[in-house]
């Protein structure tokens, strides 16, 4: 895209001034965006060429952006090494959801080297995809494990410094909306994410269900009867 700004020519009389300055402004915005974009793309390409990790893909699944040795900026050294095993499948789903992980929250010290094993207990594809990582190590800011059908996959990455809450989810269409959503807190985290099953979303014992089964059920029935009587009298169904 050419970023040269056209000079005001004689042909542009008073009438066209407004239009031209608008065009100039929009050209400036487009140019700024494209420069920013090329910087971003450039840095990503640079890092992809510097690091051997990238995508490991086969019929059974994939690992994206494994990182076993590069320390994120701000980590003087690894604070420790941890391992987790996460199961993913329909069998862990709570009422109102269809897919789920068997855990929905993790907490680790900043700069932890974390090895994740994802076990898929379903026949459909599931992922453990974490967002918001530094892009100079992890292209697109993601670390992903994917298992297509029953099976498992293991990979390692290094958590950044600082207190932050990271989104973990399955990116297969509709799986996150149907319950496959979790959060990983580094340090103290920076809050809870919305609709995390069992944390900020529906729990196993949904309070609405309990309340509904209790006195409100009776109250609704009573109101229904009263309403019917009132409507009946209005319509002169009774004398
Ligand atoms: Cu899934």
CATH superfamily of the largest domain: Cupredoxins -  blue copper proteins
Which strand-content bin applies to the residues?
25-35%
The string of secondary-structure elements, in order, is: HEEEEEEEEEEEHH
From the 3D structure, determine the CATH topology of the largest domain.
Immunoglobulin-like
What would the principal axes of the Cα set say about the shape? Answer: elongated
Mean pLDDT: 79
Reported for the largest beta sheet, the result is:
7 strands, mixed
CATH class of the largest domain: Mainly Beta
Cofactors, ions and other ligands in the entry: copper (II) ion
Task: Please give a quick description of this structure.
The chain has 239 residues and is of the alpha+beta class. The protein has helices at 14-50, 207-213, 215-234, and strands spanning 55-58, 61-64, 80-89, 100-101, 105-108, 112-120, 125-130, 143-148, 151-158, 164-169, 181-186. Strands 1-2-8-7-10-11-5 form a 7-stranded mixed beta sheet, with no helix packed on it. A 4-stranded mixed beta sheet has the order 4-3-6-9, with no helix packed on it.
